[in-house]
Amino acid sequence: MKLSRLREMPYRITDSIAARVFIDSFFVLIRRRFRYRKIVVLLAILGLLAILVLVLFYIFHFQSENDICPILMDKHYIRGRLFVGSRNTKTSLFEKPSDDFFQPMDDNRSFVYSAYIDDRPAPDVNFKELPVVRILAAIPRDDVSNGQKRFRCIFWYGNADWPVETHVIRITDMNKFDRKMPMMACMVLCKLPTTNQSVSPVGVSLISRICNSPPNYLPLNDLRERRRHFETSFENIVSTLESKNSGTISNFAVCVPPIFGQNMTMMEFVEFIELNRLLGADKFIFYIESPSIEIELCIRSYSKLGLVEFYRWNFNEKLEGLHYHGQIIAQNDCLYRVMYRSSYLTIHDLDEFIIPTRTTNWRNMLDLLHEDLRLSESNRTASYCFRNLFFPMHDKKDLTLNLTSLGDSQSPLKTLTKTVSLDYIQPWKERSKVMARPERVYLWHVHEILDESLVRKTDANVMVDEEDGLVYHYRSLDFNEFPHGRHRNRRMWKFSKQLVAKVMKSTTSVCKPLHSVPAFESSSVRRKMEWKDDLFDIF
Predict the structure, then answer these.
(1) How far is CA 189 from CA 66, 133, 136, in A?
(2) pLDDT digits (tens, 9 = 90+) for 13-41
(3) Widest CA span of the chain, in angstroms?
(4) What whole-number distance in Å separates Cα of residue 430 and Cα of residue 255?
């Protein structure tokens, strides 16, 4: 074989300019009979092997896997994936998707809950990787730490023939304060495909190994459209508070982590809703795991008024390794679910209330906080952290107020009858709660937002002094844990007249007592089964 033909063979393997220069130099050295020809030949072979390794690395880590995944090239499989069964009917996966329940991955050990397209230049992504898809998931800690599983994202384009598979950029542990739990609450970041930039994907699946069949499907919530509308509505923090928006953007949203157990009464639930409404809340988001029938009916009634959104939390035995029923997954799902839909978000339990101490509502409270800061500093504020103050529930009720109009001489409203609090106010970041601007945060922790979890490095988290606001926390206490003095605190009586009136109205027109619901006893079991089985119909 002539030397010229031998030189043409590598060009058919690669078009890389660097490779061509390397090969040309190699053959020039051979032609000149370089005295160290054996060394040069050895280096050339090693160089070619290195190029081959780089090419294989590129294929398996940075390119779409569709060309080596036969299952993603099977039209019959793709068409079959466009439909899922809902009871006895077939519903198009792309017509009425649902993203409010845990879905298993292909290993049947990991679960995914929701997915969001995010183009904010947050610290956890490289600018070149934007936009990314954030998937909220629960994955066994060992599967992430040992690196044996190669998680992949499969993007679906409506009725398009071919899905696109991409690699996972990184997996973030959202609960950095408790890494002993066997299950990890994760935020999985995937690169949005660049093969079809003119069309956005409508859904995504997460698998643990290349080419596995995806048993899950998450509709994609695209935050980019929401952001454009939000940024044109509000230019800075001052206009956010002063604007009378059109209803598509709320002022204050309240999110409640998963509700489980049968301990809360309907009156306590109504008290929570109506007191927060007095404070300024105009949107509520609940995650429902196992509520009582009474609470379920009440939530549904409020949702018909457009005040409440609720999402199912199908926590099962395989998710038991998550901290506190997967609380942090629900919190971060709520963060992204209300992002660009609400100016402010607060996340706390049903027995907690963020109470202003100088004013009677959140808007005036923030106005006073901003007066103490320059406008530039106010615009840099991403969150407000409030200290916790306990009101022991086992103390006797304060019946000084005449609340018999509620129909109970012992009054079920704990915020008006439990008027003894501890002397001790817990420090920030210990049982504290946060009010934040959702678009400024990319990761929400239970009792604080870390500086590293802010989108912009120039933003700040404000520690609110007790003179401006506190978290009033109503719960039973172990006095061995809290051996502190107590004092009378009737701050909540400022809201008594309005709160009683609103609770009375809601219990007669919105959340009716259980015994007043016609034929309820005969249908309670059926309704409970529908709550468990219905994957699509919210009402």
Answers:
(1) 20, 6, 9
(2) 445 565 666 666 666 655 655 556 677 77
(3) 108
(4) 19
